[in-house]
Specification:
Largest sheet: 5 strands, parallel
Helix content: 40-55%
Structural class: alpha/beta
Shape: globular
Strand content: 5-15%
Order of helices and strands: EHEHHHEHEHHEHHHH
Oligomer: single chain
Length: 276
């Protein structure tokens, strides 16, 4: 079983790399946004509860999120492994994940953290906002999201450093270059027999998934374009856009207006995915 966590700030190409890794390894890439959408669409007890929080403009608490993740990781398609994108976001969630994995009788293999130059990330996200006519994605808003990410994630990164599980990857450069860095780490963990690199024949490489054109400076990478056009199926991996709606989540101490915006984003994304 392969169990991977992928950390990285908004705009660093995390969604693209998650898809490439999932395709290559034949495991589902699971985001918190995907879990929310599925539970709300299926009207599960947890989905209904999550929707009630979002309808009130409140963040969905860990008491709802953690059981959702637990149930998702017990699904048949995750029996041989999974990649978690966007979870855990806090040390408390990391503890809950530890307990979930113990219940499943498995352990994490590696936590990969994509590290990118903040100014380049901001530049890329501003260009994407222009392309998508997202007037609310201004530079102050984007920098605030990045600050929230770092505030939340640095303790999580430290938590996994202490467990000797964290591997930092330079996310500056082309999709192929970043993929090669990631797979060099994965291959070193799995041994030479695991198959190498993002262009291995037994799985999809960066070129196959993204067209091989995107760099950190691109406004939108080809994987994002494909998702927006309803294309982009890849080796049965779950597809999702680069921006997870949960990326906008704020810490519990954030203002109610910020929380409402984050929750509304997740709610709107779920509504779109359900065709409403």
């Amino acid at each position: 079983m392969t169990a991977i966590i992928l950390l990285g700030p908004p705009g660093a190409g995390k969604g693209t790399q998650a898809s490439i890794i999932a395709c290559k390894l034949g495991i589902p890439a699971i985001s918190t946004g995907e879990i929310f959408r599925a539970n709300i669409a299926e009207q599960t007890e947890l989905g209904i509860l999550a929707q009630s929080y979002m309808d009130r403009g409140e963040l969905v608490p860990d008491s709802v999120i953690n059981p959702m993740v637990h149930a998702r990781l017990k699904a048949p398609d995750a029996a041989e492994g999974f990649l978690l994108d966007g979870y855990p976001r806090t040390v408390e969630q990391a503890h809950a994940l530890r307990d979930t994995l113990a219940d499943l009788g498995t352990e994490l293999d590696v936590v990969i953290e994509l590290q990118a130059d903040e100014d380049q990330v901001v530049h890329r996200m501003l260009k994407r906002a222009t392309e998508q006519h997202r007037s609310d994605d201004t530079e102050p808003v984007i920098r605030h999201r990045l600050a929230v990410y770092h505030t939340q994630t640095e303790p999580v990164a430290t938590y996994y450093v202490d467990q000797d599980l964290l591997e930092a990857v330079d996310a500056n450069g082309s999709v192929e270059e970043v993929s090669e860095r990631i797979f060099a780490i994965l291959d070193s963990l799995n041994g030479a027999g695991s198959g190498s690199g993002a262009d291995s024949a037994d799985g999809a490489g960066a070129d196959e998934v993204t067209g091989g054109q995107a760099t950190l400076d691109d406004p939108r990478d080809p994987w994002f374009e494909a998702h927006q056009n309803g294309e982009g199926e890849c080796c049965g991996a779950e597809e999702f856009p680069e921006d997870d709606p949960a990326e906008a989540s704020e810490p519990a101490s954030s203002s109610s207006s910020d929380q409402g915006g984050a929750a509304a984003s997740a709610n709107a994304d779920a509504s779109v995915s359900e065709g409403r």
